[in-house]
Design a protein that fits this description.
Blueprint (H helix, E strand, L loop, with lengths): L11 H11 L6 E2 L16 H13 L12 H12 L8 E6 L1 H16 L4 E6 L3 H9 L3 E6 L10 H8 L7 E5 L12 H14 L2 E6 L8 H14 L3 E6 L12 E6 L6 H15 L6 H11 L1 H33 L6 H4 L4 E3 L4 H11 L1 E2 L5 E3 L7 H11 L3
Parallel strand pairs: 1-10, 3-4, 3-5, 5-6, 6-7
Antiparallel strand pairs: 2-8, 7-8, 9-11
Helix pairs in contact: 2-10, 2-11, 3-10, 4-5, 7-8, 10-11, 11-14
Bound molecules: 4'-deoxy-4'-aminopyridoxal-5'-phosphate.
The site of 4'-deoxy-4'-aminopyridoxal-5'-phosphate has 14 residues, from helix 4.
């Protein structure tokens, strides 16, 4: 029966990694895949995570199953990190998932269980996995305007016009911070206006927050998620620990369902546990346990927050250096958006031909939609990129 299978499109970003690996040129610069890298191009294990891992190795006495929703201490620690005291803990149901992707997938699953006809409104563009998962699940998606090709900021008026079409029973998917792939984000006034619109239309927000701590700071990056969750009756939140704890391969994430009051908790919690059970039973524990240990120990937490802050400010400094270098070379301010964007990515707004030329003529690898991973740069490669960008006419 396997012959009836259809070839599935390869993940474009993962295919790019392979082409980069096989490229014999030196130097070559990988600004493609969405992984944080330090100035030497390594993706380090964070100090506090390594320490927690050592402690865990000493102290762990069993590998027996945890609960279907994972260890409740992980949920508590993550809910506190993402939501602070924006909503009462009793209103939040939560389940550990394999990575943020698992949380996104099961968030969609929960939506489909609650309303099989739900339409999911997605930003144009969004993380390609949002689209492919929704397509795989056969769920209806409606793109909303998001990126303004002229300013390289958010087309907020277009976004609001499109989201006015979402009604009760529909879902509006937003990126809590550090929008992937554009790097363009709403300001707090705009988030408030979006909340007012959600209250008016009755559509349910789903927040994907995969980069908390990579934009303006741990608390600042959670502000929009907290505002939404505390303002509307129901919110779905998919959080990833891959980036901010640097534990990509441990597959650590949390799906949260925030309700208007505690009465829905039992039903929502039961639904999340049921979904885990159907999909993979117990969620991975190792990464979740490390996160719990780091967040609950004052010294580990302080060291983790310090290292995360160093990563964040390092990326900001690269943004500023690149914008300044481009300003110097072009004599124009049109690249200022690179310093305004937040998170690991910026969409340059270059044509596919220009992206091809960067790769073919300069050995600089960007995703085809001109998404640039800022963390792939260092002080020395910034001037090389800036010169190449001007050379190919960006
Ligand atoms: N959402 C967005 C927007 C992302 O960029 C990512 C990471 N690429 C994720 C979710 C989930 O990542 P992971 O499954 O590795 O935790």
């Amino acid at each position: 029966m396997f012959e009836t299978l259809k070839e599935q499109p390869a993940d474009k970003i993962l295919a790019l990694v392979q082409t980069y690996r096989e490229d014999p040129r030196d130097p070559k610069i990988d600004l493609g895949v969405g992984v944080y890298k330090d100035a030497s191009g390594n993706t380090p294990i964070m100090r506090a995570v390594k320490q927690a891992e050592q402690q865990l190795w000493e102290a762990e006495t069993t590998k027996a199953y945890t609960g279907l929703a994972g260890d409740p201490a992980f949920a508590d620690a993550m809910i506190a990190m993402v939501l602070g005291d924006a909503v009462p803990r009793a209103n939040v149901a939560a389940a550990a998932t394999p990575g943020g992707t698992g949380a996104v997938r099961q968030g969609f699953d929960m939506i489909r269980m609650a309303n099989p006809d739900a339409r999911v409104f997605v930003s144009d563009p969004t993380w390609p996995n949002h689209l492919s998962i929704l397509k795989h699940m056969g769920m209806e998606m409606v793109p909303y305007r998001y990126f303004d090709d002229e300013s390289r900021g958010v087309d907020f008026n277009g976004m609001m016009e499109d989201l006015a079409q979402a009604g009760r029973g529909d879902v509006v998917l937003v990126h809590g911070c550090c929008h992937n792939p554009t790097g363009a984000n709403l300001n707090m006034t705009e988030w408030k206006a979006l909340v007012d619109l959600l209250l008016k239309t009755g559509a349910t927000p789903m927040v994907d927050i995969a980069y908390q701590g990579f934009g303006d700071g741990l608390e600042e990056d959670a502000a929009a998620t907290r505002l939404i969750a505390s303002s509307v009756p129901e919110t779905i939140i998919a959080a990833s620990c891959s980036k901010n704890f640097g534990i990509y391969r441990e597959r650590t994430g949390l799906l949260m369902a925030v309700a208007a009051d505690a009465s829905a908790h039992k039903l929502n919690q039961g639904t999340l546990a049921y979904l885990n059970r159907q999909n993979f039973s117990f969620p991975p524990d190792h990464g979740a346990r490390l996160v719990t240990m780091v967040l609950s120990d004052d010294a580990l937490r302080a060291d983790w927050a310090k290292e995360l802050e160093e990563m964040r400010t390092g990326m900001l400094a690269l943004r500023e250096q690149l914008a300044a270098e481009l300003q110097r070379l072009s004599g124009s301010d049109r690249f200022g958006f690179i310093a305004q964007h937040r998170g690991m990515f910026s969409r340059l707004g270059a044509t596919p031909e220009q992206v091809d030329r960067l790769r073919d003529e300069h050995a600089i690898y960007l995703v085809g939609d001109s998404r640039l991973n800022i963390a792939g740069l260092n002080k020395d490669s910034v001037p090389i990129l800036a010169k190449a960008m001007i050379d190919v006419g960006i």
